[in-house]
Amino acid sequence: MRLTDKLLRKNISGGRIAGFALSNFIGLLIVAGAVTFYVDSRSIWTDTESFVRSDVMVINKKVTSANTLGGNEAGRFTAEEISELEGQPWVRRTGAFMASDFRVYASVSHGGRGMETAMFFESVPDGFVDGGGSDWHYGEGDTTVPLIISKDYLTLYNFGFAGSAGLPQLSEQLISGIPLQLYLRSEDGERNMRLTGRIVGFSNRINTVLVPESFMRYANSRLGTGSELAPSRLIVDVSSPGDVAIGEFLDAHRWEVAGDKTGSSAAFLLKTVTGTVIAIGAVITLLSLFVLMLSVSLLMEKNRNTIHRLLMLGTPLRQVGAPYRQIIIAGCGAAFVAAMAALAALRGYYLPAIEGLGGGGHGLLWGAVTGLALTAVVVVVNVAAVGKKVRNCLTFNS
Amino acid sequence: MTSRIDTITLDNLLPRVFAQEEMPSSQIWCTDCRIERGGRYLIEAASGGGKSSLASFIIGSRRDYTGTIYFNETDIRTISIDGWQDIRRSRIAYLPQELGLFPELSAIDNIRLKADVGGFDDMAMVERWISMLGLENRRDYPAGRLSIGQQQRVALIRSLCQPYDFILLDEPVSHLDEANNLIAARIVEEDAQRKGAAIITFSVGNPLLIENATKLKL
User: Fold this and answer.
1) Which listed residue, A174, A380, B14, B67, has the most CB atoms within 10 A of its CB?
2) Does residue B1 belong to any structural domain of this protein?
3) Tally of domains within chain B
4) What ipTM was predicted for this assembly?
5) Residue A213's pLDDT band (boundaries 50, 70, 90)?
């Protein structure tokens, strides 16, 4: 060890440095742990639905006797209602469902048995449905049209209909492989189209049979009557799913959200809890930053005479600061490594449970990145403080 | 590295603390005074005359003065912190009155530390100085346990362990007998001559016995 280092390390308090390392370790573990857990568990609520993001809701008016008696008009959204909805702070954008203006018959034959049903199509503007990948596309003249159907339909079939009718249950994978024969006919029966439908996905949030908007425009223009109806359902991209203001607004208007709502509330809750935990961890980390700063400052103050004498001999400032920077880097490095090790161990503990629920992923990576970023902040701030203190020991009496 | 310093000019210099006082005549305060590289100067002062203040101003550790100090043509108030460290390592050697030894290091380690910082590697010369000044038996003693006179000799050797254009010696021999004073003077003269440097020594009554020194009254 250099003689200067020997002099400058005098008065080091192992206890204070250990105190810093411990508090920094705890702070890092909490922040990095919260980030890791958040990233790992987020997919439990969000990944089940790859076609429609969790912050997209479908809303419709509650069906009352007035709807039944007053015909279809009572259940439709007027232009004023739509603009009022768009004026809400939690709304990013809205889109209207477009309904098919023609009749749809679908038939399927599987293993010699056939089924036929009348059905309907709806579409929403592009951009609300992401996913389905490259399958979610229809070009004019294509003979195959992709469909996204409500998961509830499959559930109804599998657990309601199939059992009672003696038909086999169908998995999502299986049904995706079966082509649907589609027969589309105009209201007056004079025009028709034959197509193959292919189910590319199931949705919890959109309770309909969804086709690409391009197909809907094409089919409506060929087979439709040309009459445009106001939409009875709206798709809404919201900025904060789970926000209580959303529920209050919808209740006040007697509108309701279709499909699965628990996902968005749980995701909201997860975000809130994670945010709180991260804030607590960040405060502890910040406090540890100051503990280190005070410890090093105190140490340098005790060695002030030595530092001053070394500087008066012409010792370069960076050489005088070096032992203190080494203490900072060693302390922070030890806390970071220990926190990451503890985090990895903790994650090993909860990961099987989370994976059982459909979670998992790159949580540890994000936790480590967060921890590293925090450590970098602590190191940079403290190293800067050392530089300032060394210059301060030169003391110009001006 | 900072370029060579050939002159130190004290232009109308006065410690702030003297600003309100009636000053006796001085060859340094409130005048234009030039100190040349290669020269020998003995600055004599009554105690409290600002002798150590002058040394601190020149070495850049204090700035509480009015007037201007120039190294060549550079106002020293404009020199950066790193510039000062370079000057202290390679242009101006300084032996402060309070010596500034590290009491926990041995005499030889005090010297080694400085030689390290100053890039000085003639340790044979150091050993010669140690024996000339009669410190052989004390070289491994912690500096804090040496007598003041011994500490003064260690600090004197230490101050020589670097390149310099000027060497400032503030009361270097106040605790030495005349024999040691003469030895110290010869060592400093030889080393300064070798380096082409100026000797500036300060004293209130027991000056370093260098020959042919220009006396300046503070």
Assistant:
1) B14
2) no
3) 1
4) 0.93
5) confident
